[in-house]
Amino acid sequence: MKPGSEDFGKNGEEYLSDGIIHTKMERVDDANIQRRIRCVKLRGTNHSPNYYTLIFQSGILQATRIIAE
User: Fold this and answer.
1) Tally of domains in the chain
2) Are 44 and 50 in contact (CB under 8 A)?
3) Is 0.85 topped by the overall pTM?
4) Could you read off the pLDDT of 10-38 as tens digits, one per residue?
5) Is residue 17 part of a domain?
6) Range of 37's domain?
7) How far apart are CA 55 and CA 31, in angstroms?
């Protein structure tokens, strides 16, 4: 995806896919950037389309609610 765009595919790929995971880098202030992740589409599941903060510490990867905007 292009920065600032919400288009997931040029030729309908998003319709054919079983899942779409969207990741982005989000600036939270002048000195900090957070990695964000969301499940846009996951066929056959009940999932939240909301963004979550992606944290990697001590070899562990976690997705948690967005930490302070």
Assistant:
1) 1
2) no
3) no
4) 666 666 778 888 888 988 888 989 899 99
5) yes
6) 13-64
7) 17
